């Protein structure tokens, strides 16, 4: 109970303070209305804005103060305010006779006691409630263009005025702050402390000042740190609120945080580094050393300060080092390499020491940062690398010789062209002063000698051209140094060349001062293809390195000789092939002309043969038509007359009661049957009439006549005209032959004839459900090659340019398909 009473008393006290400090004295227009939308209270600023009086306009409907056209908007605002938990905001115009009223923003929220609804009236025009006197123009200009923001507000955080500098500090327009609560854009973590500070400042005497640091939401969505100075000027009539001066200190905050984190980071870095780190003053005393330094030197933090900088460094390394900066007094960084003794095992390990100044005091270096990095493994690796470099230099010279030889051979087309450059390469890369290149015969069994390709000396050896002018003769196998290399197939050397004995080129070399000769073979597949001979002044012993080099070079030159020989043979083969191709092309042109002529003759013969075949078919059909007409007009008429006479005779004999009457009647019946068969034969010989639809009629008659033996049907969905009687007759004969084959050989019980218009022509199809076509294996086993009827059908189709297919239907039956394309 006591707690509840204290809470109610606290709310009432806060409401009273709000009315005194904000509602009554603030320049912000505020009014309260009840649940029926009637005005129950308003302050002086609202009275001036609405033109209302306290005694006259209390309990008056809220809608009376606004434009009559917006009455429904006012009622909706009141209705939503009764149930809303958040502020209800509506834009509306005030009542004003004769002109448009001032547009304001009406923001309503429930009051603390929840008995009325508190409304703030904010002019949309952004008019500032605080006026400035003309004498204060300089001060106003100074405040509005400063980097700091000056604002006036109430203890609850409501802003009455702010200088335009808020735009470049926080990005907001000044008018948007009028009537806004600063806690809407303040960081939630800073709100409680600032609220408490405002309450304490409002209760303090006029002129009291507090300083706060908090975060404000910038217009771009980022949080900005601001340092604010708040002064209680509620008692000042011209101000009537709390004056706040604040500035953006975000960058300073970031720098402070960065400095703090940097210091922690650098200390953590120094402790975690695998280096020896220490800081010395200008006298060389240790001010700081990391744990790795203390562990490496085997001292504690207290004993570390007493160590001299020379401790743990061998005397021979000290003589090579220049003194550090705190000894010499020099003002630049220092670096040196030395060994430092490790306390754990007493081993001396190489370190590189770097010393840099940290700060300056009165023009002198106050302290120095020394970092020693262990490079013992790197030092050992450096020694090993130097050893390997010497080895690599030797190997590189070997590779350089091989690479130079490869380049020379790659740019030459023959050994004669490459020989001068090869000798120059050996002289420049291996230190020889002259040489010769010999080539052996391609056949090892040949008795031909070594032939000289080229011999020369280095250009700086005088007199020039002596070796070239010696003109050595070919050497036999085993003769001189080159001949012995040819015979033994291995490198050989000779010392003590003489000007008086030996081959001519040896004597010429001796005259130039050359005393040593060395030769190695050019090998390919184990056979000597040539010899390279070199000369120099000093004696030497051929080592393994030189033998490896000349062995590889000899193989490369051997491959080059084989490649050039193969290229020569290929060139000869290509020339022979070109000649053969030319002759063949000439023969092909002659034979092509002959073939074109034969093709023309054959085409003419085929055309003539096709014409004759068509003429034969026409003659055959005309003969059949003539025979059919003669049968119909001659034999059928005569048989009809004989049948008539026989019938009359039978009638007379029946009257006389003769015994032969019945036999005469039988003869008459046989004559009538013969007449029918004769007419059928005549119709079959000439089935298609000359009109365009005669083919459909003939095929329908064929189906009807066949139905007397087996079931046969004819299908034709559309009327198909055949303007050429020969084509129609050929199609009919193909269908007739297919039906006869189905009756005679397939033993079919059902036959279907169809005539239809297909894509690109006319299609005739005859299908049956008979035994089908024998397989190729069965026909071969029975030595069957196909009947004459199939050959005739193919012949007729080929004559009229149609495609005939004979297909085996599964599980039973045969399909004859004839496609006659349209004539273009």
Features:
five-stranded antiparallel beta sheet; flat; 824 residues; 23 helices; 46% helix; alpha+beta
Describe the structure.
It contains 23 helices and 25 strands. A hairpin with a 5-residue loop joins strand 6 and strand 7. Helix 20 packs parallel to helix 21 and helix 21 packs antiparallel against helix 23.
What is this entry, summarized?
The chain is of the alpha+beta class and 824 residues long.
What spatial order of strands do you see in the largest sheet?
2-1-5-4-3
Estimate the strand proportion.
15-25%
The overall strand count is 25
Integer-rounded radius of gyration? 63 Å
Q: Which class do the helix and strand fractions yield?
A: alpha+beta
Structural shape: flat
In round numbers, the mean pLDDT is 79
**Percentage of residues in helical conformation:** 40-55%
Termini separation comes to 115 Å
Number of helices: 23
Q: Describe the biggest sheet?
A: 5 strands, antiparallel
- In terms of per-residue confidence, which ranges show pLDDT below 50 for 5 or more consecutive residues? 126-135
